[in-house]
Design brief:
Layout: E1 24-25, E2 30-31, E3 36-38, E4 43-45, E5 50-51, E6 56-58, E7 65-67, E8 72-73, E9 78-80, E10 85-87, E11 92-93, E12 98-100, E13 102-104, E14 118-120, E15 123-125, E16 130-131, E17 136-137, E18 142-143, E19 148-149, E20 154-155, E21 163-166, E22 171-175
Amino acid sequence: MKVKRIKKHSTHGSGKFKPKDFKTLGENVIFEPGVKVFYPQSIHIGNNVYIGHGTILNGYFKNEMTIGDNTWIGQNCFFHSAGGIKIGKAVGIGPGVMILTSTHMDNDLWKPILYHDLEFKEVIVEDGSDIGMGSIILPGVTVGEGSVVGAGSVVTEDVPPYYVVTGNPARILRQRGKRIQKRKNRPR
């Protein structure tokens, strides 16, 4: 394996920010203590948005992050918008959710993954969706309008509007509004 230093690492800063640093910042946006924001100049935040303690919003110089009106983001979330993130209106995002928009390519077996180029893919979370605690949304995924991602899920593929998904990898559990059929001989 070719292991040599490609470039020196450098700091991204402290994550401290001021309201004027954002590309746009709506009214009644609550940043709880411990929220860190990197590259706020590439982040749009709508009106009446709550961002919980310890959350990290990592903007990026190439793409933008947009958080729609009336959205609630729980504690200790991590959003990295290298490929772009669009979060719709009235979205609920539980504590500890991660949204990732880039991955390292892995085409050269003799090169450490860290040294490979990045591939960027946008993540879209449409209006009225709910992302359960501890879930991970991977690059290129669209979470459809009004859908639910169960706690602890790893979402690798698009979620259709008004569906419930759960698991690792996330799979469709049911369509919202439809009852789950009881199975006969189900253990109790």
